[in-house]
């Protein structure tokens, strides 16, 4: 038996009680009795307040009682189902008892709800395990009892079949496929003809064009995110030693020949800039690991370095620890991590990318999975009718979400495809020459007090590079366009601990995954 009235009116317990199993129409009569005792025992000015409290107390108690009764009925039905399931599949399922008296309280209600959910989850797991074992057998090897089980749990069987189809499709998408040599040459010839006829060709590039420079991609078999998903360690790469690949040099040459109008890159390695591609023709949507910016200056002042500036930066933390030599403002990197929105005008150059995409009649995608780029509607002219959108040509080893809308898909390595393409276009491929690397003429040297502000290895200057670093006593850094390579006397030795990796490498991966709560 439990009291209906609060302690202040405990003298009414003998006349206003409610059984824990009750919950029907008797609650109203008992409430009236309780209210009468309250009115008789309290001063008149206290009666409305206490009466309201008692009424609310009774209402909540009755609602909990009804809920517990409902849970009892549900538990009983669940127990009957488990008993029936055990009879059909002996030894596979142990019935879980949910009976017994329950105290009418919120704690009991919560426990009953959790127990109900646990029973349901356990039942589903055992049903799925049972059906999975049956589906692994050939149809001719299944017993009559197993066939009846599949009919009884038809929804589970259909769900498992759908999961199997999805798993196979995802596995096929992750596979790297390369066209046969003859088929590849035929496709490259078609691509070359499209480039010749294009009025405004725009190139989109991804991590696949930098794998030849020993920079791993993200979603390939040995990609950064692929290894992280498998729980494997990511091998470190000395990004300071990377040099522009054959594909980088081909793209620069196509721009020089006025066949390519603009390049939109997802890469942060700065190799497009080092290949000689001019800044106005380049949009590095996710930043450049060699550029740090002072946003306190107007316009924002860029500081191009000959080392990776992302050593101290990470997701939502972009300070590099150095200061602008003109305004003493904090410098930040330009990297856009997964889950962030780029706000810098340069080197992202979103305006140049969107304008080029609007004028494009042909888009060539090289080495990109397009899983990120596809979300940027302004790059695909989605405001146009489908027939008036640019023709899309894709070069990639793996499946991309834009394959269905592509005019041509070439499965192959970027360097191999570009070598065939340049041959068909009758254009000579230039070799990378470090002496002509623009990074040395555009770089802003560190001041003497900043000499030890990083531990990254520097890009080694070409032999015979002249010393044109500024006077360390100057207040302002030189104009970025001036020829100011770093002081050759500076410590350019690599990190004594061995190879290093950029602060942006693999960052944001966990944000893209949904963490499943352990059951």
Describe the structure.
By secondary structure, this protein is α/β, with parallel strands linked by helices. It has 2 domains: 2-120, no CATH class; 200-448 and 480-508, Rossmann fold (3-Layer(aba) Sandwich), CATH 3.40.50. The chain contains 13 helices and 12 strands. It has helices at residues 26-41, 47-88, 106-135, 144-152, 154-174, 181-197, 224-229, 246-256, 271-274, 350-359, 414-424, 438-442, 509-512; strands at 2-3, 17-18, 201-205, 260-265, 282-284, 291-294, 301-304, 319-323, 330-333, 362-366, 391-395, 408-410. A 6-stranded parallel β-sheet has the order 5-4-3-10-11-12, with helices on both faces. A hairpin with a 6-residue loop joins strand 6 (291-294) and strand 7. Helix 2 packs parallel to helix 3 (106-135). The radius of gyration is 35 Å and the shape is extended. The model is unreliable at 1-28, 91-104 and 467-519 (pLDDT under 50).
In terms of topology, how is this protein built?
Blueprint: E1 2-3, E2 17-18, H1 26-41, H2 47-88, H3 106-135, H4 144-152, H5 154-174, H6 181-197, E3 201-205, H7 224-229, H8 246-256, E4 260-265, H9 271-274, E5 282-284, E6 291-294, E7 301-304, E8 319-323, E9 330-333, H10 350-359, E10 362-366, E11 391-395, E12 408-410, H11 414-424, H12 438-442, H13 509-512
Parallel strand pairs: 3-4, 3-10, 4-5, 10-11, 11-12
Antiparallel strand pairs: 1-2, 6-7, 6-9, 8-9
Helix pairs in contact: 1-2, 2-3, 6-11
């Amino acid at each position: 038996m439990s009291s209906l009235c609060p302690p202040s009116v405990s003298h009414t317990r003998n006349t206003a009680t409610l059984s824990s199993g009750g919950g029907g129409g008797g609650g109203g009569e008992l409430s009236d009795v309780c209210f009468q005792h309250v009115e008789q025992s309290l001063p008149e000015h206290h009666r409305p307040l206490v009466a309201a409290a008692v009424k609310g107390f009774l209402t909540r108690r009755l609602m909990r009682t009804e809920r517990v009764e409902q849970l009892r009925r549900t538990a009983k039905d669940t127990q009957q189902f488990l008993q029936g399931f055990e009879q059909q599949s002996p030894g596979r399922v142990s019935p879980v008892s949910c009976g017994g008296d329950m105290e009418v309280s919120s704690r009991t209600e919560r426990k009953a709800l959790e127990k109900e959910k646990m029973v349901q989850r356990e039942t589903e797991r055992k049903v799925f395990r049972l059906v999975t074992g049956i589906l692994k057998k050939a149809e001719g090897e299944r017993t009559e009892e197993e066939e009846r089980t599949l009919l009884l749990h038809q929804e589970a069987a259909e769900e498992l079949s759908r999961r199997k189809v999805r798993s196979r499709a995802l596995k096929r998408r992750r596979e790297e496929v390369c066209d046969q040599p003859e088929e590849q040459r035929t496709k490259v010839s078609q691509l070359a003809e499209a480039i010749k006829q294009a009025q405004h060709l725009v190139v989109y590039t991804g991590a696949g064009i930098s794998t030849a420079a020993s920079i791993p991609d993200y979603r390939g078999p040995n990609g950064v995110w692929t290894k992280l998903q498998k729980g494997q360690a990511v091998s470190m790469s000395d990004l300071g030693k990377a040099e522009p690949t054959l594909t980088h040099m081909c793209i620069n040459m196509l721009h020089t020949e006025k066949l390519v109008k603009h390049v939109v890159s997802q890469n942060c390695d700065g190799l497009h800039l080092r290949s000689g591609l001019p800044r106005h023709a380049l949009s590095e949507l996710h930043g450049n690991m060699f550029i740090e910016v002072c946003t306190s200056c107007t316009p924002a002042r860029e500081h191009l370095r000959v080392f990776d500036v992302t050593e101290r930066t990470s997701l939502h933390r972009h300070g590099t620890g150095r200061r602008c030599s003109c305004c003493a403002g904090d410098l930040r990197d330009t990297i856009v991590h997964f889950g962030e929105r780029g706000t810098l005008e340069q080197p992202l150059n979103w305006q140049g990318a969107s304008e080029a995409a609007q004028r494009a009649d042909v888009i060539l995608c090289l080495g990109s999975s397009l899983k990120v780029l596809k979300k940027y509607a302004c790059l695909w002219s989605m405001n146009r009718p489908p027939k008036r959108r640019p023709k899309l040509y894709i070069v990639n080893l793996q499946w991309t979400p834009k394959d269905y809308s592509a005019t041509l898909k070439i499965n192959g390595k970027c360097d191999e495809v570009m070598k065939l393409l340049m041959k068909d276009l009758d254009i000579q491929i230039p070799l990378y020459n470090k002496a002509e690397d623009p990074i040395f003429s555009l770089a802003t040297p560190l001041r003497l007090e900043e000499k030890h502000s990083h531990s990254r290895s520097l890009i080694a200057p070409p032999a015979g590079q002249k010393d044109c670093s500024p006077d360390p006593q100057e207040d302002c850094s030189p104009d970025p366009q001036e020829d100011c390579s770093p002081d050759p006397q500076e410590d350019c030795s690599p990190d004594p601990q061995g190879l290093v990796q950029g602060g942006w490498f693999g960052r944001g991966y966990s944000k893209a995954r949904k963490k499943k709560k352990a059951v």
